[in-house]
Please model this.
Amino acid sequence: MSTAIQTLFDLSFLEQMDDKDFLISVLDLYLADTGKDMEEMSKAFDAGNLEVVYKTAHKLKSSTGMLQANTLFTILESTERIAKGGTKTSELTELLKSGLVEFKQLEIALELHLNQLKST
Amino acid sequence: MKILIAEDEPIMLKTMELKLKRDGHQVIIANNGRDAIQLITDNEFDLVITDIMMPYTSGLEILGFVKNNATKRIPVIVLSAMGQENVVVEAFSLGADDYITKPFSPNELSLRVMRFAAQVAA
Model:
């Protein structure tokens, strides 16, 4: 992996399982669910439903943490904390935007890694 | 050991289930707190591992149920998240036996569970 990709995630927790099929299934699952959840979180925010934002950020934090995608993890952690307060703030707006940008980068890097895994 | 994992996040659940099965444990899973309570009522577990924030019934309620209703002493490991230190304190006051902060490595989980396996075997 290149250094740039390595900074986006660290699969060492999952690699402890020493099981390529498991790793592929987890990455497939993460890629299938996370984009949808991120979009739902943004829609919930636009609709003023901060309860959904809080719960979705909490859920995404768990899976993102297992991939040690630390930048996105930190964004989700802050999103969860602020949304839990129940007030729609400009900081929360910015966090949701930066979360989507960060996820897009992560998604590309993970897809690349996943393709490499599947081809070996 | 017969272990119940109560966790609603699929990747966490998949990782924990596979790791503990590979360690030789019998693993039953619940995706929400309500199912977890039902499973605890209907089965005899040696260990319960529960997330705190789950649909229908929280991990703290599961913990309280285990400590107040189970017919034998069942250890409970609580899965907390960073920033939930106050909840961990509450969990210990309700009788939690250990906690693990998410994210965690599968090897850490394995080692923590092994401590309770030794108690069950004793």
About this structure: The interface with chain A takes residues 8-12, 14-15, 18-19, 22, 53, 81-83, 102-107 of chain B (CB under 8 Å). Residues 67 and 95 of chain B are 7 Å apart (CA to CA). Chain B has five helices and five strands.
